[in-house]
Design a protein that fits this description.
By secondary structure, the protein is α/β, with parallel strands linked by helices. The protein has one domain: TIM Barrel, CATH 3.20.20. The protein has 11 helices and 12 strands. Strands 1, 2, 3, 4, 5, 8, 9, 10, 11 and 12 form a 10-stranded mixed beta sheet that branches. α3 links the parallel β4 and β5. α2 crosses α3 and α7 crosses α8. It catalyses: 2 5-aminolevulinate = porphobilinogen + 2 H2O + H(+).
Length: about 325
C-alpha cells in the first residue's frame, strides 16, 4: 500500500476548486425549514428576548415574513401558535378558529405553493404548560391522544400540508394517522418528533411560546439525554404507526442519534436546530467571540454529514442569504 510521500492528502485541499470537486456533503436552501411563532392581534412584532431576530408575529406581519421565505427559496415553514387564552385542556390547539388554523388559512391563500407544516402539541395552549391532559402530577397519555388527533385534523382542514406531532405521547402517530385517514386526509404526511429529548436547550423556545411547565418537568414523556438505544425504539414505533418523516430534537448534542437513526432505518430524517443552539451562537456572535456565519454553516453542514435530510432552524433566512453568496 502506498505511503507518504506517494500519498499526500493535502493535494486535494490546495485550492478552492479542488475542494469543491471532492466535497462530500453540501448544504442547500432545499434542506431548510423555517420555524415561525404566530400570535393574536394585528401589527404585532414582538422580539423574543433570548432569540435575537426571532419574533412573535401577528398573522398580517407573518405574511410579510413569508415573502422573505418565498423570495429566498426556502421550501417551507413550521408554525407554532401563541394564543391569548389557555385552559386545562388546551382547547385553543384544536379550535377550528385557533391562531394556527387562522394563520394556515391566510398563508396558504397568499402563498399556495409554500409548504406549511404545523406543530401538533398542547403545551402552548394549556394553563399548566404540559403536553396533554393532567392526571395527578403527570400527563394522562391515552385521553390526550384524541385531542392531539383533533388538533392535527383541524390543521389539515385549515390547509396544512404536513403535521408534526411534538408531544411524545405513546401512540400519537397512530391516532393522528387514523383520524386523518378517516376524515379524507390520507395524503397529509406526518413528520414525527420521534427522538425528542428532555433537553435544557429548549429554554428560549419556552419563552417564545409561553410554554414553560407550571409544575414539574417533561421528563416523564420526553427522552432521557443519556439514552441512545431508546431513540431507535421510539423511531421504529413511529414508523410502524405511519410516520413519513422522523425527527431528532435537539440536533447539536445528538448528532450520534441522527447518524444511528439514518443508518438503521434509511427514512427521511429532520434535525431540529433548536432555540438554545440558536441563542448561544447569537450571544457569542454579539460579543464578537465567534464568526457567526462560519459557525452556523459549519454546524448545519455537520447535521447533513450526520445524516439529516431536513434541517429546521431559526437561522434559515440568514443561511439562505449566505448560500447565495457562496
Amino acid at each position: 500500500m502506498p505511503v507518504f510521500p506517494n500519498i499526500r492528502h493535502r493535494r486535494l485541499r490546495l485550492n478552492e476548486r479542488v475542494r469543491r470537486l471532492v466535497r462530500e456533503n453540501h448544504l442547500s436552501v432545499d434542506d431548510l425549514i423555517y420555524p415561525v411563532f404566530v400570535t393574536c392581534g394585528r401589527g404585532v412584532r414582538r422580539e423574543v428576548p433570548s432569540m435575537p431576530g426571532v419574533y412573535n408575529l401577528s398573522v398580517d406581519l407573518l405574511l410579510e415574513e413569508i415573502k422573505n421565505v418565498e423570495e429566498l427559496g426556502i421550501p417551507g415553514i413550521l408554525v407554532f401558535g401563541v394564543p391569548e387564552e389557555k385552559d386545562e385542556a388546551g382547547a385553543g390547539a384544536y379550535d377550528p378558529d385557533g391562531i394556527v388554523q387562522q394563520a394556515v388559512r391566510v398563508v396558504k391563500k397568499s402563498f399556495p405553493d409554500l409548504l406549511v407544516i404545523t406543530d401538533v402539541c398542547l403545551c402552548e395552549y394549556t394553563s399548566h404548560g404540559h403536553c396533554g391532559l393532567i392526571k395527578g402530577h403527570t400527563v394522562d397519555n391515552d385521553p390526550t391522544l384524541e385531542l392531539l388527533a383533533q388538533t392535527a385534523l383541524s390543521h389539515a382542514r385549515a390547509g396544512a400540508d404536513m403535521v408534526a406531532p411534538s408531544d411524545m405521547m405513546d401512540g400519537r402517530v397512530a391516532a393522528i394517522r387514523a383520524k386523518l385517514d378517516a376524515e379524507g386526509y390520507a395524503d397529509i404526511p406526518i413528520m414525527a418528533y420521534s427522538a425528542k429529548y428532555a433537553s435544557a436547550y429548549y429554554g428560549p423556545f419556552r419563552e417564545a411560546a409561553g410554554s414553560t411547565p407550571q409544575f414539574g418537568d417533561r421528563k416523564t414523556y420526553q427522552m432521557d439525554p443519556a439514552n441512545g438505544d431508546e431513540a431507535l425504539r421510539e423511531t421504529a414505533q413511529d414508523i410502524k404507526e405511519g410516520a413519513d418523516i422522523v425527527m431528532v430534537k435537539p440536533a447539536l448534542a445528538y448528532m450520534d442519534i441522527i447518524r444511528r437513526i439514518k443508518e438503521e432505518f434509511g427514512y427521511p430524517l429532520a434535525a431540529y436546530n433548536v432555540s438554545g443552539e440558536y441563542a448561544m451562537v447569537k450571544a457569542a456572535a454579539q460579543l464578537g467571540w465567534i464568526d457567526e456565519r462560519r459557525i452556523v454553516l459549519e454546524t448545519l453542514t455537520g447535521l447533513k454529514r450526520a445524516g439529516a435530510d431536513i434541517i429546521i432552524t431559526y437561522h434559515a433566512l440568514e443561511v439562505a442569504r449566505w448560500l447565495r453568496e457562496v
